[in-house]
Amino acid sequence: MAETYQWAQSYGATPTVSDLGESGNLFNFKDADDATAANYTSNPITASDTADQGRSYEVFLRAHFTGTFNQIDNIQFWMSTNFSPATGLTVYWAGNNVTYATPVKTDSSIATGAVPTSDPGTANVSIGGSLSGNLSAAGYSDYICLQLDVATTAASGDTSLATFTLQYDVQ
Known about the structure:
Blueprint: E1 2-11, E2 16-21, E3 59-68, E4 72-81, E5 89-97, E6 113-114, E7 139-140, E8 143-150, E9 163-170
Antiparallel strand pairs: 1-2, 1-3, 3-7, 3-8, 4-9, 5-6, 5-8
């Protein structure tokens, strides 16, 4: 069996879908709704403690599986390395979004939970609307929605990288 996996980001109103790759600096939280990691310095997030401010645009990611496999299931997602320093930086998330929504930079009504910071042990990203869902042919997980909140206690300037991990079972 030779499945392949990579992150896919959806953005814009239509949406446009871009395969990003498997690892590395694949996306950045920023004040722009696009799928490039390169332009974050020209689209900074202004820190704020006021509701609907100090937020990145929502980032909509899916796991994109191709190749040959019998079944993929049990998708688990977490932030394995936090920003350093992390003071004033909070990543919100949701991992069971069947439907895409045009990203917003106000307080997300989708990404409202704290992103897990350790392996959850069981599926927390859905496939076909179910945490017990599976793929038996090439396809996508449901959407993972992320949003960064930058409070005024955050250090000014560029942040370090955070690392997000996606784990799954394949047969």
